[in-house]
Structures are given as C-alpha cells and as structure tokens.
C-alpha cells in the first residue's frame, strides 16, 4: 500500500456501535493494560505511555474479542493477519506527539479505525490525520509515523490492524 487515504463511515453503523459499546462504553469493564512506552525508540517523557488491549498477534488470538472483529477483517479483505491492537491515549492539556516509529520493518497494510472524534491523530510525513468517529486511516505502517494525545476528549480510542 503506497498511498495514504481515509474513509469516513468505514464500518456499517451496527458493527461500529457494537465495537464502540464494548470498548469505549463498557462501564469500566473493558480490560486495557498500561504500557510505559509507545514505541521502542529512545524518546521518553511523562506523556510517552498509553493503554492497550492486544486482540491478535503471533499468529493467534490473544483476546476473547477476536470473533467480533471477523466482519472488519472481511471488509478489509485480509489475506493474512499480523496484529489487532486496541489503543487508548489519555487526554493532555496540549497535544503531545509521541516518538516516530514503524509498526514492523516490512511493507504491509495498516488500518487505524477511530472509535471517537477528537483533535488527536496519527502523523505521517509531517501531516496529521485527525480522528473522526468510524473513520479509517489506511497506510503502510512500515513508513515512519507517530501517534498523538488529544485535548478535547477524555481519551483517544482506536483500533490498529496490521495485515497483508
């Protein structure tokens, strides 16, 4: 995938709302795990952390939620799945850009699905792609990119898909 593109209203409304209800609106029952760094690069700050939930990696499901992602994988036309990871970046007083990184060192497809609208996003080639609920960002995650915090929502929620 050489181009970078976005698609609004990516998922059917009922599929999207089911994911959002489980992950974002779960009344504190959805498990998210603290990560004290966002990338493996050298940059460290008090804002270089986030919470994640790994759904799939290392050729196997890591979460009971894997089944609910099957319609999304069909829509993405996934031939081979590398990873599904849910991310939560907390709100900060000003937007903080995290360290630039590559998800994997080889060309592959990536989709970042925004679960809420906020002023944070993903920066690729010095352009910030801001998040809008149910919008998908498609790009090759082996190119350098970085995430940000947000300032106008409690948190920024997204789902990261890496695949062929």
Explain how this protein is built:
- The chain has helices at residues 13-23, 70-76; strands at 5-7, 33-35, 50-57, 60-61, 81-90, 109-114, 118-124, 127-131, 136-139, 145-147, 155-163.
- With 164 residues, the chain is mostly beta strands.
- The protein has one domain: q2cbj1_9rhob like domain (Jelly Rolls).
- Strands 1, 2, 3, 4, 5, 6, 9 and 11 form an eight-stranded antiparallel β-sheet that branches. A three-stranded antiparallel β-sheet has the order 8-7-10, with no helix packed on it.
- Strand 7 and strand 8 (127-131) form a beta hairpin.
- The longest helix has 11 residues, at 13-23.
- The termini are close together.
- The mean pLDDT is 92.
Q: What is the element string, with H for helices and E for strands?
A: EHEEEHEEEEEEE
Structural class: mainly beta
User: What is the highest CATH level, the class?
Assistant: Mainly Beta
Number-wise, the strands total 11
The CATH architecture can be given as Sandwich
- Helix amount, in percent? 10-25%
What are the segments in which pLDDT stays under 50 over at least 5 consecutive residues? none
CATH homology group: q2cbj1_9rhob like domain
Can you tell me the number of structural domains? 1
**Radius of gyration, rounded?**
15 Å
